[in-house]
Write a structure and sequence with these properties.
Layout lengths: L2 H8 L4 H18 L2 E5 L12 E4 L6 H8 L5 E6 L8 H8 L1 E3 L4 H16 L3 E4 L18 H9 L3 E6 L2 H4 L16 E7 L13 H16 L3
Parallel strand pairs: 1-7, 2-5, 2-6, 3-4, 3-5
Antiparallel strand pairs: 6-7
Length: 224
């Protein structure tokens, strides 16, 4: 757990200044694990414009890779509410992330209000549309619509990042760190894309937007 995020858990207003330390911490962890990131093209985004970042979810290192790739764009992640029950980690998780209970309509509405607040402060939002790590044999899991709903309702662009090697290098497994014994150090390729505008889109366009992002990721994954 990054010390910077422990500090941020005390005062949420410090999130953006301390995000840089989270980036450094993530890069250090990846480095000492034997990983190095190779981006097909650096992100060239307007730092004054908030975005919704999305990526495929395949490994425990996905968050660290995303933070490292989008190092100039302080973001908050939307994650499962169940994880807040983990001792110590859960407290920091709750303070630095937007939590959603997918079984509760009230929780989904609270997520909308929370993301609106974060976006108004110039922060970006990151979600993994699959919602969970799919089975190893599955290339890309079924998408949930949260990321696309947020992007459309707030009229902000979506930035797609596809991780080509995270599953191979550090696969998810039951028991978490047991995955390390199945992985191998090396290059982590990331495919980045130009922002997808949501200006003028409505909730009726959500499925088409989701399908467009899914098609991009599937095309990228053919390069694996």
């Amino acid at each position: 757990m990054c010390p910077a995020f422990i500090i941020v858990a005390i005062n949420k207003n410090w999130y953006k200044p301390f995000y840089f330390f989270g980036v450094v911490w993530s890069k250090l962890i990846l480095f000492f694990m034997g990983f190095y990131i190779k981006i097909d093209k650096p992100l060239d985004l307007d730092i004054t414009q908030p975005y919704v970042f999305v990526g495929n979810h395949v490994s425990m290192i996905d968050v660290m890779v995303m933070v490292s790739v989008a190092k100039r764009h302080a973001m908050v992640f939307v994650g499962k509410k169940e994880l807040e029950k983990i001792p110590i980690f859960g407290y920091i998780y709750r303070k630095t992330m937007i939590l959603v209970d997918r079984s509760s309509p009230e929780s989904r509405r609270a997520v909308f209000n929370s993301t609106k607040e974060k976006i108004s402060k110039g922060r970006n939002v990151c979600l993994f549309p699959e919602g969970t790590v799919p089975p190893t044999e599955m290339e890309l899991g079924k998408f949930k619509q949260g990321a696309f709903s947020i992007a459309i309702e707030h009229q902000i662009p979506i930035v797609v990042c596809t991780f080509l090697d995270n599953k191979k290098r550090f696969p998810w497994s039951f028991g978490g760190l047991l995955a390390a014994s199945k992985g191998i150090p090396g290059e982590l390729r990331v495919m980045t894309h130009e922002p997808i505008s949501t200006t003028g889109l409505t909730i009726n366009d959500m499925k088409n937007l989701s399908d467009k992002v899914r098609k991009i990721m599937l095309e990228d994954l053919k390069k694996v």
